[in-house]
Specification:
The chain is α/β, with parallel strands linked by helices and 299 residues long. 52% of the residues lie in helices and 12% in strands. It is globular.
Length: 299
């Protein structure tokens, strides 16, 4: 495994060096993105990640803009496939990244925590693989930055598309990198304050270390969400925010919060009558996909 990955990374390095001399060479830019994707999929495959849950690349043959898709914390790149197919059909190259998070750790509770620990030991004994899932927002953000930097080498016309926690990551990326526009679908900025949320926050205050063990992904989500809200600045780039009125996961406060901070006249804020949290799936998916593709096309 290490020698194969070393060869892939060597190829990436060589392409980066060659692109320094001929940055407009389309074939070199395409190959760089392909080798970068191959390196990620190689690691994911060896970790036992099912094929449909791995990072994916849908590349146009001709010069094209690129859409960088970031899924939510409880899902995988597979939940972004419908919007990826739609955007690829519109003529964009599409890259969907797999975040280094373990969905099985979210809200596991006491019983689930110990079951996951036992199951993890069994899986390691059975296949010898060690997952790189870190349950850390900093790792997710760092890997997303590396992916975006590679994508920006491929194309200067890049759109970010983030779902839920992926939207939180996209907000952080758009502050640092020059992208054409950002699409946030049910962005995670203010969780709905139900009983489970309040119990989690209280437990986090009283037993922070143990809560981080029981719910590492939810903990890291809340850390990044809080940091993102605190560090928010006026948003000058085009922004599309889409959210359902009946979203049971994220509050309408996040929608209004982003609207107040938006400064670009081309930004759009769209309420969907219903559809829940995963708007890229279900009955409202077609409507949402059209809203997203129309926004990207018109920017």
């Amino acid at each position: 495994m290490s020698k194969t990955l070393e060869r892939i990374n060597q190829s990436i390095w060589e392409l980066q060096q060659r692109l320094g001399s001929v940055p407009d060479d389309l074939d070199l830019r395409k190959n760089l993105l392909k080798f970068f994707h191959e390196s990620r999929v190689f690691v994911e495959r060896n970790e036992g990640v099912p094929e449909k849950e791995r990072s994916f690349l849908m590349m146009q043959e001709q010069e094209a803009g690129c859409c960088f898709l970031i899924h939510g914390a409880g899902g995988s790149p597979d939940e972004m496939r419908s919007i990826a197919d739609n955007l690829f059909g519109q003529g964009y190259t599409v890259y969907g990244i797999r975040l280094s998070l373990d969905p099985g750790s979210i809200d596991s509770g006491f019983g689930g925590f110990f079951r996951n620990r036992i199951g993890s030991r069994k899986r390691r004994r059975n296949n010898g693989n060690h997952s790189r899932a870190s349950s850390s927002w900093s790792v997710c953000l760092a890997e997303s930055k590396i992916a975006l930097e590679t994508i920006l080498t491929y194309s200067k016309s890049v759109f970010l598309v983030g779902l839920s926690f992926g939207g939180t990551i996209a907000l952080n990326l758009m502050k640092k990198y020059k992208v054409k526009g950002t699409v946030l679908i049910a962005p995670a900025l203010f969780p709905v304050k139900g009983r489970r949320y309040l119990f989690f926050k209280l437990s986090q205050m009283l037993l922070p270390s143990f809560v981080k063990q029981i719910a590492p992904v939810k903990t890291t989500m809340m850390e990044l969400i809080d940091r993102t809200r605190f560090d928010i600045q006026p948003i000058d780039d085009p922004l599309l925010v889409v959210q359902a009125v009946d979203d049971p996961v994220v509050s309408q406060r996040g929608f209004n919060f982003l609207k107040r901070h938006s400064r670009n006249p081309r930004s759009k804020f769209v309420w969907i009558r219903d559809g829940g949290h995963l708007l890229v799936q279900g009955e409202r998916a077609e409507e949402v996909l059209k809203i997203c593709s129309d926004f990207i096309r018109d920017i």
